[in-house]
Hints:
By secondary structure, chain A is mainly α.
Amino acid sequence: MIRWLRRPKGMSCQEVAEVLQQYLDREIEPGLARRVTVHVEACDLCAVEVHLFTEIKSELARKGDERVDPAVLDSLQRFCRDLLTGPPPASDG
Amino acid sequence: MLMTVEHGADAAARFDAFVVPELEVLYRVARSLSGTDADAEDLVQETVLRAYRAIDRFDGRHPRAWLLTIMRNANINRARRRRPELLDDPDLTFETTEAPHGTDGRPEDLVVEPVFDAVVEAAYRALPEPFRQVVDLVDLDGLHYQEAADLLGIPVGTVMSRLHRARKRIRDQLVRNGITARGGRA
C-alpha cells in the first residue's frame, strides 16, 4: 500500500536540515526552534531524522555516564575536602 | 621557591560554592581530554588546586567557564610536556578517513546482527580524534558549543562543523546497516 508522506509548508526540509543539530542541542533561538518543531511535527521524513539523531545523542550520553567511575569521583571529592580542611597546599609559583 | 597559599573561611566557602558542584563535569571533561581515568584524575586535581589558589580573584560569575579555562591551560601544559608533535589539519582530512564497515573490524567487535548500540559504538570509535573529542565534550559530557570551543581553543563554528559531520557519519553508518531507529531495521 502506498502511503503519501506528509510535507508541510513553512520551512523547507533543507532549511530544517541546516539547523537540525543546533535544534537537537537546544543551541538555536526559541523562535527558530518553534518553526523547526512545527515542520518536524508535520513532516514524516524530517521526523525520522530527528528520531534517529535523538537516539544517537541518547546512546552517546549513555556512554558518557558509563565512563564516570564513582570511585574516582569519590576520590576527587575527598581531594577537595582535604584542600578545605587540611594544611595549605604547597605552590611552586 | 616553595610558598603556601593562605585562605580565609570566605575563600573556603567560595571554593565550596563554585568549585565542588562542578566536580563531576570537570571529571567528565578531563576524561574526554586525557583519555584515561588516571590522567583525568590528575588533571582535575591540578585544575581544582589552581582554582583553590585563585579563588580570591574569581568574580563568582560563570564558575564552569572559569574552571574549564583553568583546565584548558593545565591540559595544554601537560600536553606540551608529553606530546609536542603537531597533527595534520583534522578538518581537511576528515572526509578522507575511512568510516567503519559495520564495526571497526576487530574480532571482538564483530556482530552477526548489527544492532544500534554496536554500530554507534563502532562508528564513534572510528572517528578521527579531534572529531571524537568534540562529540565527547558535547554529547558525552553535556557541554554547550561555546564551552567546548573555549576549552579546545577553536572557533565555535569549528565545534559545530566537527560535531555535525561526526554525527552524520554515525547516522550514515546506521542507515548503511539498515537501522533507522533503536530496535528497528529499515
